[in-house]
Structures are given as C-alpha cells and as structure tokens.
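To: structure desk
From: M.T.
Subject: fold request, one chain
Message: Could you run this one when you get a chance? Sequence is below, nothing fancy, just the single chain.
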Amino acid sequence: ELQLALIACGGMGTKLGHSLNALDAARIAVCCDIDEERLSKVASELNADEAVIDYRDALANPAVDAVIIATPNDLHAQMAIDAANAGKHVYTEKPLAVAREDGARVLAMAEAKGLRVGCAPGTFLGGGLQTCRKLLDDGAVGRPVAASAFMMSHGHESWHPDPAYYYKIGAGPMFDMGPYYLTALTTLLGPVSRVAGCAGIQIGERTITSQPKYGEKIIVETPDHVAGSLDFVSGAIGTIITTFATWRSQLPRIEIYGTDGTLSVPDPNTLAGPVAICKASDKEWTEVALTHGHADGRNMWGIGVAEMAHSIVAGRPQRVTGDQAYHVLDVM
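Reply: Done. Structure tokens follow.
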C-alpha cells in the first residue's frame, strides 16, 4: 500500500482522497492545504497522520511514496518538479502544465530520478470509455474515419462560488475541460499528428450571479471559445469545440464515425455510459450495455491514482501516463 501526500484539499482533492479510501489502493498519510480549517477537516476525514500548510513539508516526509497535486493549473508543473526532486512519484490534476516546456521539464525530472508521473483525467479507465474502446477494437463501426467532440457551456459564473479563476490564463474551456475530451479521443483513436485551430475571447466581461460573489465583474483573460481540427496518426480527422460562450446546444459530447456506423461516446467527465451505436443499415440508435466495470462515478474519482499505485507496487507499466498528458498538453 502506497503512502500518499495530498496537496490541496479543495473540492477535487477531497474527492480524490475519499475515493482512494473507497478503492483501498493507497493511503493518504499527509494532507496539505493553505486553508487551515479545510486542512484540519479533510485530514481528519481521511485519517491522515499529518497535516501541513507548506507543501514542501509534505515532500520532506520520508514515509511518503507519492504525491497528489490538486492545486490551480499554473502551480502543477513546479510542484511536480519539486516532488520528483524530493524522490516522490507524482500524480497531478489536469492539465500536466500550462506551457509545453514546463510539461517537458516535469517528465524529464521524473525520468532522471526513475519516478512515475500520472495525470488526470483517469476517467477513460471507467466502464463507459473502456466499453467504447472494446467496440472500436472489435470493429463494431468499421475503420474510424472521423470524430467530433463538443464541450458547450456558458461557463462558471452562474453556479461556482469563485468563478473568476476559470477565465484567467491557464484556465478557460480548453485547459479546464479539454483534457477530458482529448484524453478520451487519444485513448480511442491514438495520437494526433497535426492541429489547426481558432480561439477568441467572445464575451470579455462576465457578471457573477452565484453566491457569495454575486454581482462582481470578471474580466476574461483567456479564450472562452476554442475550435480545432485534429489529424490523427491513424488517418481519422477530428473536430473539437470547447466553449464558455454558448447558452444551449444539442450537439453530442463525442461521436466516432466509422466506415460501418457511428459510435456515441458518453461524457468523458464521467466513468459510466450511456454508450450507443448506429450501424450503417440501422435507422435508430441502440444502447450498448457496458462490458467493463468501474462505472460508479461517486467512488471512482481516484481511479487514475489507484491504477498508478497498483502499477508501482506490481512493477508494471501504468495506463494513466505523463506521456499521454504531455501529448494532450501539446495538442491544447
């Protein structure tokens, strides 16, 4: 059982910690957060041995084998480098970094130290996307020729308690949600060889309508609408939109178009279905029963960390890799 340090006990960090307890793959031994009240609460809930405010104290703990980094995007790379430099395996929330060169530095440091790097999302290990992968491997829709991926939203200001962050450099719809969609696409169709895209700030000022910052203004600093075209090494051609600038949409989450039919892929920000298929000769969609487990989103947010932990203990290659996360960063 690996001993982990959880750095940042906010929403996703806490979900990861609780799901790891449920998965029984590793133990959260140390919790770290700059918010002392939150730190104390989460450390108690996770039965951690230690609670520290400075993440460097967590890295200095000799009992810790690996760290989970759940901080804001622009902090991921340096904290991951610091962790590797301290001899710890690293699992970071998405994205791996904000800049390509920083992501490359993370991988280089870990490789030099003989350490593992994992990066969210691990949702592609869930029953929904694994069922899709098996259908494609079995030729259920023939040879994939194209794919579409759409994350259509108006953003966070109507519901998030502190939405301004999502409109700053290093966030926006592509860096916030793109990793889910691009990780799913590259898992199902393989790597991307070429990218073209357009991006813009389409709604430059936002008014918060959620509490506790109701009425405050947000100046958008990063593109809130991104559209891209992807050439996959396999020959398939992809289309992707991630946006915080639309109100309503009937577009699918992800579809894979093959020579013999179309595969409807579930929301990549979940671990379950539904999965549906429509063959060339069909007039209606048919829902496909999930052929793989791990579809309970309530307890599975830590599935990527758990998979890395099992891989380290077993001495085998892992599935949730820093290399794929870097490829996704490169595409973004």
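Reply (cont.): The first strand starts at residue 2 and ends at 7. Let me know if you need anything else for the meeting.
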